[in-house]
Structures are given as C-alpha cells and as structure tokens.
Amino acid sequence: MKDPKKSEEIGEQIVKSVAQAEQILEQEEALKTVAPEEPLAEEQSAAPVKGRRRPANKERKGSFKKSSLTDSGMVEKVVSINRVSKTTKGGTRLAFSALVVVGDAKGKVGYALGKASEVATAIKKGLSAARKSMIVVHRRGTTITHEILGECGSASVLLKPASEGTGVIASGAVRAVCDGAGISNILTKCHRSNNPINVVKATFDGLSRLKALREN
User: Fold this and answer.
1) Is residue 39 part of a domain?
2) Are 69 and 75 in contact (CB under 8 A)?
3) Number of domains composing the chain
4) Domain assignment present for 119
5) Among candidates 109, 87, 88, 92, which has minimal Cα distance to 100?
6) 73-113 pLDDT per residue, tens
7) Over 89-146, what HEC string results?
8) 139 DSSP β-pair partners
C-alpha cells in the first residue's frame, strides 16, 4: 500500500510548480503589453527622417573652384586640366598640367601652364606664373577697339566688337580670357582647332595686337 504522507507531499509539490508556472506566464504577458520606450533625443536626431533629403555638401574634398575672385580683385580661372606622363628609365611618371588665366578685369590678363604631380600644386604654379606674364588689352568701354583675327598653330580665333548688352559670345577658353580682361560684350568664333591651349594662345595673340583709340 502507498504511504499517504508521501502522496500528500507529491501533491503539494505539483501544486507549487503549477503556481510558479502561472506566475511566469503572467509576467511574460505583462512585459508584452508594456509600451516600448521612446528613443533618446540624440538617437532621434541621428535617425534619418523619411520624406526629407539630406543636405548636399557644398564642397567636396579635393575639389577646386574653376573660377574665383580673390580678395585683391583678381579673376582666376582654370581652363583645363590634363593628365600627362613621362617615360623614364625607372618607369612612367604621371603628372598633371593646368591651364589657368588670371586678370584684374580692368584690361590686364595673363595665362600660364603649370605642371606638378598634384592638381592643386599645378594650379598654384600656373597662377603664380600667369601673374608675371600679364598683358594690357586696349578696350573701348566694355568691348574691344576693332575686329581682329588671332592665330596660333592650326587654331584661329575671330574677335569682333559688340554693342552694349550683347554679352560674351564665346567658348570656355575664350570666355575665360575675356572675363579676365574685363570684356563683357564681344563676338568670337573659333576656327579649325578646338585645343584649349592653342585657342587661348590665339586669343592672346589677337588681344595683344589691338590698337588703342586715338584721342581727339
């Protein structure tokens, strides 16, 4: 026969285990019904907001401005940048060449070709050399004095005076030279070659041969 005391103890243990299991289930259900905590202010600011675009960076690292007006009033423009190489005994050496135009927008303008292993250094060398080789351009108000044709190699540039309000009708290379010299009304046309170096040289050839107006 079974001992009644042992059966009572087993029954009590079963009741206790059932009660503990019910408590655990109640605790789990209570946790599920609790509302999730709100994120902190820092997390909210860091989280992306739907429907809004991120503000674009104004300037990228390593970028440069093609046209800028310095504190001294000089107009500096980068016309073109080319990657050049030189084959030596030790291998191929890569570098960059920058064609730049500098002017005071009052009749003086110059150009130069700077070369260096980095783009920023090439531009800096070109700007310093262009300031040393500036020429005087004869103007009549905001345009040139007369029509002229400038040539360099296979490139030729036709420069014609224009009336007030016409603007600068020119390509990128010729426009950079006109902006540097302070010419705001002119008609131009490039013939045969579109090489920026030859076009700039042809433009300077025409501007350097302009004649001044006679003062009565």
Assistant:
1) no
2) yes
3) 1
4) yes
5) 109
6) 889 999 999 999 999 999 999 999 999 999 999 999 999 99
7) CCEEEEEEEEEEEEECCCCEEEEEEEEECCHHHHHHHHHHHHHHCCEECCEECCEECC
8) 144
